[in-house]
């Protein structure tokens, strides 16, 4: 009897499963999945290697980047070296744009999505000023996870992943390379730090340990020195300074500086000037450009000796109240 009931229940289960598979078809691809798979690139023939010039117009300002040999410069800013990571990010986004998510083909809606002349107009040009890519980047979508984009010669507006305004318009941060120093921290053998209060000299010893020679001879906290070198060897600016005389920056006779001496015979020296608006003016000794760093970032470099010295805990003081019995002597 029980076997008969189990067979009936099993048959009902199989029947219900067949009904679900037939009508619900859980293995069938969703319309969204099908749309994604059928999508085609907005710029199917795009090849970043063919790009020789980039023009970006945002809020009435034009930024022009030019390719010189294998590197990029900001032509609109005296050919200053460009931030290659930002340029690569822009190229990556252009290559990813597709027609999967169409939101409008009505030209009257372009202003709403800011993909008209109120958006960020971008041109990527190749040899003989051939236009390879011409598009408009608009505002963020309501969820802030995507942005609106439109190819210049089309009315179709699509959504694309990411906060694209920050990718295509650097605004006051500019397209300049923000690197101040980039060197191999592993080949540093000496660090000199000068401030109005003291001069700190650190050297690597024969056992590959940092030691302090000035203002006192002392062992140093190796992690503190490593953190300092991490910051110094990959130092990026927080801002670019306006062009002025060095005296206005306080860099004509700086009172604070840091120098790393490397085992390949080169040195890296940063001079620190006066503070303005929470940032300090800084300058490489071998370059004319003046940068600005937040005070906290300067403090990570111009360290005091007391912050670097290894704090060794004092030996445990012997308890003066210890009795002979407590020291292990037999009691009477």
Structural overview:
This protein is α+β, with helices and mostly antiparallel strands. It has 2 domains: 38-173, Immunoglobulin-like (Sandwich), CATH 2.60.40; 185-308, no CATH class. The protein contains 9 helices and 18 strands. It has helices spanning 2-23, 31-38, 84-96, 110-113, 164-168, 222-233, 246-249, 295-299, 305-308, and strands at 53-58, 61-68, 71-74, 80-81, 102-104, 120-125, 131-140, 146-151, 157-161, 188-194, 199-204, 210-214, 218-219, 239-240, 256-262, 267-276, 279-284, 290-294. The strands form 2 sheets. It has a 9-stranded antiparallel beta sheet with strand order 4-3-2-1-6-7-8-9-5. The chain is flat, with a radius of gyration of 32 Å.
Helix content: 10-25%
CA-atom Rg in angstroms: 32 Å
From the 3D coordinates, which CATH architecture of the largest domain would you assign? Sandwich
Largest sheet: 9 strands, antiparallel
CATH level 1 class label of the largest domain? Mainly Beta
Spatial order of the strands forming the largest sheet: 4-3-2-1-6-7-8-9-5
Strand content: 25-35%
The helix-strand sequence is HHEEEEHEHEEEEHEEEEHEHEEEEHH
CATH-assigned fold name of the largest domain: Immunoglobulin-like
Number of strands: 18
What structural class do the secondary elements suggest?
A: alpha+beta
Broad shape = flat
Low-confidence stretches: none
- Counting H and I runs of at least 4 residues, what is the number of helices? 9
The tally of structural domains comes to: 2
How far apart, in Å, are the first and last alpha carbons?
A: 90 Å
* pLDDT averaged residue by residue: 89
């Amino acid at each position: 009897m029980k076997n008969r009931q189990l067979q009936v229940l099993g048959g009902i289960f199989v029947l219900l499963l067949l009904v679900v598979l037939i009508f619900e078809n859980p293995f069938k691809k969703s319309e969204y999945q099908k749309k994604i798979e059928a999508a085609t690139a907005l710029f199917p023939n795009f090849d970043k290697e063919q790009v020789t010039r980039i023009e970006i117009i945002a809020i009435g300002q034009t930024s022009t980047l030019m390719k010189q040999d294998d590197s990029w410069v900001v032509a609109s800013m005296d050919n200053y070296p460009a931030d290659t990571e930002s340029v690569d990010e822009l190229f990556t986004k252009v290559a990813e744009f597709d027609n999967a998510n169409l939101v409008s083909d009505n030209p009257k809606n372009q202003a709403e999505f800011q993909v008209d002349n109120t958006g960020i107009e971008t041109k990527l040009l190749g040899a003989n000023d051939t236009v390879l890519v011409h598009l408009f980047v608009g505002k963020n979508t309501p969820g802030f996870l995507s942005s609106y984009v439109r190819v210049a010669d089309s009315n179709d507006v699509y959504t694309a992943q990411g906060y694209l305004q920050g990718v295509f318009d650097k605004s006051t941060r500019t397209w300049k390379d923000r690197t101040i120093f980039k060197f191999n921290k592993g080949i540093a053998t000496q660090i000199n730090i000068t401030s109005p209060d003291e001069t700190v000299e650190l050297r690597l010893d024969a056992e590959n340990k940092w030691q302090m020679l000035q203002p006192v001879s002392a062992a140093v906290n190796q992690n503190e020195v490593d953190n300092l070198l991490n910051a110094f060897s990959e130092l990026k600016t927080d801002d670019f300074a306006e062009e002025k005389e060095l005296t206005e920056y306080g860099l004509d006779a700086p009172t604070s500086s840091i120098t790393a001496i490397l085992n390949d015979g080169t040195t890296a020296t940063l001079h620190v000037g006066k503070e303005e608006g929470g940032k300090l003016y800084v300058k490489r000794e071998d370059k004319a450009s003046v940068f600005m760093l937040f005070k906290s970032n300067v403090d990570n470099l111009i360290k005091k000796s007391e912050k670097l010295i290894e704090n060794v805990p004092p030996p445990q003081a012997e308890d003066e109240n210890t009795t002979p019995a407590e020291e292990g002597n037999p009691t009477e």
